[in-house]
Design brief:
Its EC number is 2.1.1.113. This protein has 422 residues and is of the alpha/beta class. 40% of the residues lie in helices and 14% in strands. It contains 15 helices and nine strands. β3 and β4 form a beta hairpin. α4 runs antiparallel to α8 and α13 crosses α14. The longest helix is centred in the C-terminal third of the chain and has 22 residues. Bound molecules: S-adenosylmethionine (SAM). The site of S-adenosylmethionine has 23 residues, from β2.
């Protein structure tokens, strides 16, 4: 699936409509190295890049690197940004596909030998790990690989490839299920669980095969992944992009800070919910969990949202009043205000970083928190024009059902591509 909110059972809206899903990437070299459910289809991204004739492709919400790797495959320059450090690290590791597969296999073999040594291990303190790895032997073997990967680090790109090979087997070795939106479900079990050393070897084998398969593309310009905020686009030169191809977070309450909680807990980077706070502060506001301590008053007065202010205020007011009547008291009012203020900042940053005549393709869906419809693509289009882009149109790709529908609102929701010319 592309965005985390999409149910897989929704019928597609027409030919080619599934081109925005990540599932297809699981058959493609390099793209398949980590299943990032929020990602979109690499083949589709490649076709957009090719048809556009672009030379400089920018993805301000680069996630697992799909757009940048697709650019490399076509032979054009790509820059992808993401503010999530763990996801950025995954994307950067994927860009090491140009390394020598034989060396990778040899280094993986050293790790296997190291992991077989009976050394003491320290389990991560996160309670989630004990829950997700009830089998002691599996946990022990995974911890030994984790430690071997760290011990045999020499400071080169193979370190990162081996780190990714390890990270990408953690879920497969746990009986815990994964929700459609990549949240881990410790209480839901899956039937097939991988054995760590076998899974690690198999992963490295897949990486090596893909590195061989991609050899003919080695001469393409190397893509760049930057850990940075789409609201400022630090690191992207003025006027650089002639194509912006991206899928931002949707205003749908998905918390990207939580998407890699299992993997980060395993590595000891986070222990509990509190540790996600710092990352949540960095993310574009798109979930109520991102809103702690945030005051909407300033946002609603900002000149940046002038072009949608009246409508936004109406939606904000309705959500505030519904919130007061609900036991859950969810701050969807703040989420919506924060989402569009952030979006306005992003359009200004994108305008700075793009050339005149740039093409923009924004894969996005609308939203209806507490049953109140938010016309996301129209508001995004209007904010883009206010930031200096020339025109927008929306191409619907599919209808979608969401949890909002269960709350009996009657707005059919959809997902599609917001095309902007500038
Ligand atoms: C829909 S995903 C993009 C997935 C990507 N297309 C792929 O194929 O992997 C949206 C991404 O936006 C990132 N994000 C959220 N807030 C951000 C911000 N302020 N700046 C840059 N990236 C951000 C999230 O971490 C997430 O990876």
């Amino acid at each position: 699936m592309s965005q985390p909110l999409l149910p897989i059972d929704v019928p597609s809206a027409g030919p080619g409509s599934n081109t925005t899903t990540f599932a297809d990437n699981m058959r493609l070299p390099v793209h398949r190295w980590f299943r990032y459910s929020a990602g979109f289809s690499a083949q589709w991204a490649g076709s957009v890049i090719e048809e556009s004739g672009a030379k400089h492709v920018l993805d301000p919400f680069g996630g697992s690197g799909t757009t940048v790797i697709a650019s490399e495959e076509i032979g054009v320059a790509g820059i992808g940004l993401d503010v999530h450090p763990f996801v950025t690290r995954i994307a950067k590791a994927k860009l090491a596909w140009r390394a020598d597969p034989d060396i990778l296999v040899k280094r993986a073999n050293d790790i296997r030998l190291e992991a077989e040594k009976e050394r003491p291990v320290v389990a991560p303190p996160a309670p989630l790990i004990a829950k997700c790895f009830p089998d002691r032997k599996t946990l022990l073997n995974l911890l030994r690989i984790r430690d071997a990967v760290e011990r045999l680090r020499v400071g080169d790109e193979y370190d990162e490839l081996l780190w990714l090979a390890f990270v990408s087997i953690i879920r497969a070795c746990s009986p815990a299920g994964t929700a459609q939106w990549q949240y881990v479900l410790p209480n839901k079990t899956k039937s097939r669980v991988a054995e760590p050393l076998t899974a690690f070897e198999a992963r490295v084998e897949v990486f090596a095969q893909d590195m061989w398969a991609m050899r003919s593309r080695r001469s393409a310009p190397e893509g760049k992944i930057v850990e940075a905020d789409a609201r400022t686009l630090d690191g992207v030169p003025d006027g650089w992009a002639d194509l912006i191809l991206t899928s931002p977070p949707y205003a749908n309450n998905f918390d990207y800070a939580d998407a890699t909680r299992l993997e980060q807990s395993f590595l000891g980077e986070i222990t509990g919910w509190g540790d996600l706070k710092q990352l949540r502060k960095k993310l574009m506001k798109s979930a109520t969990q991102h809103m702690g301590g945030w005051d909407a008053a300033e946002a609603l007065e900002s000149p940046l949202i002038e072009s949608i202010r009246e409508e936004l205020l109406a939606v904000f007011g309705e959500l505030s009043s519904i919130k007061r009547s609900k036991a859950g008291n969810k701050a969807y009012d703040l989420m919506v205000a924060g989402y569009f203020l952030d979006s306005a900042q992003i359009w200004h940053a994108l305008r700075r970083a793009s050339s005149p005549g740039v093409k923009v393709c924004y894969v996005v869906g609308d939203s209806a928190p507490y049953g109140v419809h938010v016309p996301v693509e129209r508001w995004l289009g209007e904010l883009a024009l206010a930031a200096g882009f020339k025109e927008w149109r929306f191409e619907k790709v599919r209808d979608r059902n969401t949890k909002w529908k269960n709350r009996k609102h009657n707005h059919p929701l959809h997902e599609g591509r917001l095309w902007i010319e500038g």
